[in-house]
Amino acid sequence: MTTEIRAPVLAPLAKPGKPIRSELFVSRTRTAMLFLLPMIIVLLVVAGWPLYRTIYFSFTNASLSNLGAAQFVGFKNYLGWVTLKSGKTFYSGVLADPAWWNAVWNTLRFAVISVSLETVFGMIVALVLNAEFQGRGIVRAAILIPWAIPTIVSAKMWSWMLNDQFGIINDLFLRLHLIDHKIAWTASADTAMTAVLVVDIWKTTPFMALLILAGLQMIPKDIYEATRIDGVGPIKTFFRVTLPLVRPALMVAVIFRLLDAMRIFDLIYVLTPNSAQTKTMSVIARENLIDFDKFAYGSAQSTLLFVLIAIMTIAYIWLGRVNLDGGDR
Amino acid sequence: MAELQLKDIHKSFGLVEVIKGVSLEVQSGEFMVFVGPSGCGKSTLLRLIAGLEDITSGTLEFDGEVVNSLSPSRRGIAMVFQSYALYPHMTVYDNMAFGMQLAGGGKEQIKRRVEQAAELLQITPYLDRLPKQLSGGQRQRVAIGRAIVRDPKVFLFDEPLSNLDAALRVATRLEIAKLHHSMNNVTMIYVTHDQVEAMTLADRICVLRDGIVEQVGTPLELYERPQSLFVAGFIGSPKMNFLNGQFAEAYKASTIGIRSEHIEIKDKGGLWSGPVVHAEMLGSDSYIYVDVGSAEPMIVRQNGTTSKQLGDVLSLAPIPNAVHRFDAQGKPLLH
Amino acid sequence: MLWAYTKKTAFYLLVLAIIFQAVFPFYYAILTSFKSGTSLFEVNYWPTMISWDNYVSVFRSGSFPQNLLNSIVVATLTVALSLLFAVTAAYALSRVRFRGRSLMLLTILSVSMFPQIAVLAGLFEVIRAFGLFNTIWGLIFSYTIFTLPFTVWVLTTFMRDLPIEIEEAAIVDGAKPWTIITRVFMPLMWPALVTTGLLAFIAAWNEFLFALTFTSSNSTRTVPVAIALLSGASQFEIPWGTIMAASVIVTVPLVALVLIFQRKIISGLTAGGVKG
To answer: What ipTM goes with this model?
Structure first.
């Protein structure tokens, strides 16, 4: 047997320059498309089309009782103006509506405060769960409870606890001399937002804690042993070692929560209904859509919220990609 | 069994070309080993033959029939994976029977084939067990059994011994060799990075580097007549000693190579000399590292235990006609 | 020595605080649900009585049992449908290379970011057009907007982690994709399916906005809406006892499920969040 010397053999190809595709890959790709079809159709019908319709409605004068007769009105729902003969201009539309901007402000305020506090508390709980001690399982089980309780139920439970007449919170605070008279937590303008924040933070901190915990557990234990040998104190270890290493998981958790918080509806609707201090964009949009039958107006508000969230999402992805390309490597 | 023809095979993943024009003939019934360093493309080539990857250009023929477009199950191949790839939730019997069940074989026929294969590999007592209840070596035999049941024209092995410990590796190597004989010499293609496995199992070896074929030949041919510096250095353990500069000029070559087993220790008057810098004693052989003034110490093999000590100055000479001469491009210079 | 002792005590105090704040509201709700009559209007920190009156009135309130049934049916069917579509889609997205795959994954993820209100108007029209208004099918249909992307995303992550060599062995054995999914992957993935199903079930169970908007009569409502709308005999009387009882009825099975499947749920949540 002689050694084979490599000589380029002109191989017969199916078409000049085109490789012969294996039936395996052709059939697999075809099957993949088939498998994806149901999901795509469902998502188009349930999400794609309705989204388009909402945006469409926002440019019309549609009303609940007669959706079909909607006529195009341009940007009037968003911003319109009328100049009177006296020279005075009246603005109308969502963008000129103080109630809308109040809702935007409420939503932003709520989102920022709740996510910040949830992150801090979530971090604390995650650090506790990451430590090894007796009864760790009980803590983990316990914190799942606020998460497991349906939002409406938590709203009712806390409503009851925060009840001005018979609520346990008022009773407790009075006894501890923290307050001197019973406060209507959910009804009073000063405290409504605080009440909402308390319940939301109570309910969502477990989720943050679990996500952060997953990030913490990916940090190899020997790094901590190295810091111990180096004599680095716990606080410094946290800020210089733990925090930077858990940052990716933290960022993912924060952005998820932030986008969630911007969309909030359930809690506000049930805990502090009709409170101008807590009306968020979702709440006010639905109010206009369904309760006031200002369907097109509400659609415009819904669209604006969608655009805001879309911008935030794209900004996050873009920033994240920029970091990945330019930063660490 | 089948004869394989690879004609100018190219494979690219996106913009990266991994197989850069491989042409090869595998004879019917031979045990062909693909060997080479990490990243040389040997596993990719095997997967191209199996049909698990698309061939970018070139043709692959089994017994003269172009099989580029056929899916793996229609090529008449069977594959033994590095990590065995047994179905964890199925018993050994079901693992081996799966392929035939899908093809619609009769229950009786399947039973016969599975039991035959199990008998051949001595895994009959394990037929009802799950893979996790078996040891690594047993799982490997089940993987081979699954391949046998397919009654393939070509057997493909993808580094099957890498996950076994050293002792088991030697034993299983022997079993694979016996298997080849007992299966009427079915064509087998075997991929490994271990040149010892290649040398001991192969009828012919194909040395690959960077997506091209460096040399194809019998183990002995590769050992005695390497066609490149790379093959000379790759085959043979320990690695061939290479000398440049004035050492090579003495032989009118750019580089010369001499295997450690082809060097004699003379009392005096040898071609090279220097002090012993390191000695390895393995009981059956000894390897003495001598600093003769070249870039790296020269390794000399001795039978049994050696009496040479660190610092002893030795005089070395090659046995006649054992020096390999290479030009500046790494190609062999003929005598 | 004293410092170490103090640290430990502080730590355990923190642990106790965490457990306490997590559990107390639920405990208090249970406490309240067992009170009846005027004792409801006293504040007690410890149980004073066990009365089943509230629970009885919940079930007598007419539609609550029906609401419970509705919730169960809606959540179960939503999950079943979503899992069915998601398993096949996840296979295509995780195991088959095709152009535009990452774009599709990104699109699916972004659908789960949609504010529900943004599709409310459009969905309202679609549901009315299909004649699904005020039916549980309308709910099942609309719930897929958040259960489907979630299940696809999590199942894709799980399937991606299955060893490729097992699939290749199946391909060599001649298995087609459907066979690979049903006979090779599903048996290995059923823990993931349970987890995903559970998380999707909880999300569907919890849902409020669509249930509130797309149903108009008590007999089709689901539990969250029913509880939100629970009202008393007169306009000024809020039946706290009944509300608490209803809350407990709805929550106890959920909490039990979550506690039993703790580990799976936690791994499912983090798979979706961290790995993705």
So the answer is: 0.84
